[in-house]
Amino acid sequence: MAEESDLEKTEEASPKRLEKAREEGDVPRSRELAACAVLFAAGLSLMMLQQPLNTALKESLKSGLQFDRTMAFDPVTLLMKSSHTVMDLLIAFAPLALILLAVAIASPVLVGGWVFSNKAYMPQFGRLNPLRGIGNMFSKNALAELIKSIGKAFIVSIVAYWVVSSDMEPIMSLSNMPIEAGISEVSDLMMTGFLTIVAALIFIAAMDVPYQLYHYAEKHKMTKEEVKQESKETDGNPEIKGKIRQQQREMARRRMMSKIPTADVVITNPTHYAVAVKYQEEGMSAPIVVAKGADAVALKIREIAKEHKIVTLESPKLARALYAHTELDQEIPEALYAAVAEVLAYVFQLRIFKQQGGFQPEAPKTLPVPDALDPHSLLPAPNLMMNGGTA
Fold first, then answer.
1. Predicted confidence band at 134 (pLDDT cuts at 50, 70, 90)?
2. Whole-angstrom distance, CA of residue 297 vs CA of residue 302
3. In the chain, fewer beta carbons within 10 Å around the N or the C end?
């Protein structure tokens, strides 16, 4: 059962999978939306360009009906006249063609955006498989396309019937109109009917766009095994990553240990924590922590400090506060300035004593460490009541 669930495509497509599909030219597309946009643009353009197009067609018809004797005996003249007529029509319809071309190119941006990929034009011999073709004929996508086509035909038929029936009276009165008025009326009726029918296609496009997005997301879903494999390819094998992180920690620890001989003092818990502090009057505005650790690392810090004769001071509360609230190579918190200052003052006095003699300084016993910085002070107090008495 676990193997079957791993083979089911239940996971959403990853950004890498979607990017790969896009590189191959596979993006969501809505042909209904593109067709609706082109037809709507054609209708609006014809309405705006109606007058110049009518004039061009009249002039072309008028020129075509004119015929003199010279054209009958001079094919060159006839050819030149025909070419001029065709050129005039091309110039007249050029704005309409440019508008439709711009809309056809820009309409894919509405769903999926522009994609330029030569992989889409590469031969795919898998498409020649007849079994696969038969399977596509009876797929859910084919059924959806069939339902969409039937719905589109039904809606267009209903709207077309409504347009014709509502304009029946003007249509019947066309025979009684003068030619100029009749042509103008027919043009208006056809344009209004065309735009009304195209507007009905917006309903089909509004349903097709969400379906295409859903179908695209379903097609690119991944199995759990594919997600794991992609994660390994992208982020690397977890075991290798773990070893790399371990090596990085070891390198960071070695760098930290190499800085302990430069410290002025090591403050200990005395056994659980150890923090090495350094301060120089030149270049430092406050003492910094050059090394810190707990348990085994703390023991190693104390050993290195002893080896290099670094002063070690037991102050459990200060050691815990420095360990919890200071990062490596960072200045200590301002709230610990006073406590660390007393420790450094003791260390500097101890150096003078070892060099010049005199009175040996006494190690500070009570340091001004705020309780809020001590992790142990934030823990709940242990229950000392046992069997009704105090321990």
1. low
2. 9
3. N
Rg value, the chain, Cα = 43
Instruction: Mark 64-83 as b/e (b = at least 16 C-beta within 10 Å).
Output: eeeeeeebeeeeeeeeeeee
Cα dist from 313 to 257, 308, 333, whole Å: 18, 15, 19
Mean pLDDT of 6-14: 73
What is the distance of C-alpha 369 from the center of its chain? 48
* Per-residue pLDDT tens over the stretch 167-203: 788 777 777 777 667 767 777 778 788 888 888 888 8
**Rounded alpha-carbon distances, angstroms, from residue 280 to 262, 310, 336:** 11, 15, 17
Give the Cα-Cα-Cα angle 286, 290, 292 (nearest 5 degrees): 120
The token pair at 237 is 């094998």
| Res. 120 pLDDT band, cuts 50 70 90 | low
Phi first, then psi: give them for residue 24, nearest 5 degrees. Answer: -85, 5
Cα 243 to Cα 375: distance, rounded to the nearest angstrom? 31
Q: Give the mean pLDDT of 210-222.
A: 84
Q: Give the pair of three-digit tokens for residue 3.
A: 């193997």
Question: Strand pairing partners for 222?
Answer: 11
Q: Give the rounded distance of the alpha carbon of 170 from its chain centre.
A: 56
Query: Would you call 334 exposed, middle or buried from its count of C-beta atoms within 10 A (0-12, 13-18, 19+)?
Result: exposed
